[in-house]
Amino acid sequence: QVQSTLKDTLVELDKKHFIHPTSSLKQQQESGPPFIFTEGKGVYLTDISGKKVLEGMSSLWNVNVGYGRKELAEAARDQMEKLAFTNSFSSFSNEPAIRLAAKLAEITPCDLNAVFFTSGGSESNDTAYKLVRHYWKLKGSPQKTKIISRKKGYHGVNIGATSATGISPFHQMTSSLAPDFLHVDTFSTDALRDCIAKEGADTIAAFISEPVQGAGGVNIAPDGYFQEVRKICDENNILFIADEVITGFGRTGKLFACEHYNVVPDVLLLAKGITSGYIQLGAVVLTERIHKELIALSDGVLLHGYTYSGHATACAVALKNLEIIEKENLVENSRLMGEKLLNGFKKIQAEVDIVGEVRALGLIGAVEIIDPVTNNRFPTLISPKVSAECAKRGLIVRTVGFEGMDTVVFSPPLVINKQEIDELISILRDSLLAVQ
Ligand code: PLP
After folding, report:
1. What is the torsion angle, in degrees rounded to the nearest 10, for the CA atoms of residue 371, residue 372, residue 374 and residue 378?
2. Cβ 214 under 6 angstroms from ligand 1
3. What φ, ψ does residue 40 adopt, rounded to 5°?
């Protein structure tokens, strides 16, 4: 009784005062929040009514080490007690930021060695667009300003990141995209070549892509695609930015997804799994070559920085989070459990008529819904119904219902074990059968 009164009070306060990100304002007023979570442990969350759910999405693809990690709470508390925060402007520094920058230099591929800190993925993107333009300007090519990204790519919600995002519904809140952002077909290297030829390589600063598109429906590149992209960028003197905000830190079964393709970007964007969501942090990693050129050519202050760039507490939590990922072999677990997840999807595909293509790379995956008669999408979206059935049965998933897709996507914590994968697959199967 007490608990239900508390819940009612919170729901009313939520409706009145809390504007939720990426949510339907009307639906929030009608039904209130579907869950008010109060606790998390491993891959499970508990809500205020006591209902326990399996988190098939690691929240927003980011709680890689799972919920309820006391080590991370202790790392934050220890650092806050000593020195919670000091700014990094004018080259002021702090030990966790220095150690984390050095650690990222060590674990990222090849000569990706110099780190600019942000507070999340959108900031990492906007920072990268400004840095690459600044770089070309310093090198005497100020006309190299254009950023090419891909259709179905997602890069965040700041004006620059929104403009690079290739999913048109996300453009609705800007009257126009920022100048000089172009989109090409997702996996077409011909489209990339054509775009460069049409615009002129001397006007293009960078090409950006996610190694595996996440929010655009978990789209995994065909063999050879990224090697060809790297070649095209080199031939045309265009920088290659890899947005590993989702795919970094083990999500795909390698520490960084570009390792699947043996391709090293010039700029690597990180966030999310860098702290497993325990605190806000993002990073932009540059190659040593670009860093050295920026130092040699710079003629004043680098006028770009966030108050929280190099936040001591966030960096201390990130260091502990990376220690957990290493100690518990979570990258290998992601690879192994990812295989099991994909096998589970395939079994469901054989059994359930409305399941189309299924795919996964490590612990990021997707199940497409199709009309078995036409082999196309149904006239109305089915995936939200699947997601609602999953929630009823105790599994959180997300859906992608734009750009012709009707897809359920998955990204469970990297600590997930065999029994928990079986549970996920069993609930998904029952939910699909219930809507079919
Ligand atoms: N880049 C990618 C690939 C993402 O998936 C996201 C968020 O989902 C972002 C950037 C934006 O990150 P944030 O929401 O932390 O600003």
Report:
1. 0
2. yes
3. -145, 145
Residues 89 and 196 in one domain: yes
Q: Ligand 1 centre and the CA of 413: distance in Å?
A: 17
- Domain region containing 46: 34-65+329-435
Structure tokens at 366: 């997707």
Which CATH number fits the domain that encloses residue 398?
A: 3.90.1150.10
Same domain, yes or no: 334 and 297 = no
84/174 same-domain check: yes
Q: What is the pLDDT of residues 194-235, one digit of tens each?
A: 999 999 999 999 999 999 999 999 999 999 999 999 999 999
Going by alpha carbons, the residue nearest to atom 5 of ligand 1 is 246
ipTM of the complex: 0.99
pTM of the predicted protein model = 0.98
Among the atoms of ligand 1, which is closest to the Cα of residue 214? 5
* CA–CA distance, 324 with 319 (Å, rounded to integer): 9
CATH at residue 182: 3.40.640.10
Distance CA 392, CA 434 (A): 11
Residue 294 and residue 138 in contact, taking contact as beta carbons nearer than 8 Å = yes
> How far apart are the CA of 214 and the centre of ligand 1, in A?
9
Q: Residue 396: in which H helix or E strand, if any?
A: strand 395-396
The finding on whether 244 has its CB within 6 A of some atom of ligand 1 is no
Domain end position, chosen among 310, 327, 344: 327
CA-CA-CA-CA dihedral for 311, 317, 323, 327, to nearest 10: -160
- Alpha carbon of 154 to ligand 1 centroid (Å): 7
Radius of gyration for the alpha carbons in the chain, expressed in angstroms and rounded:
22
Is the predicted pLDDT of residue 426 greater than 70, yes or no?
yes
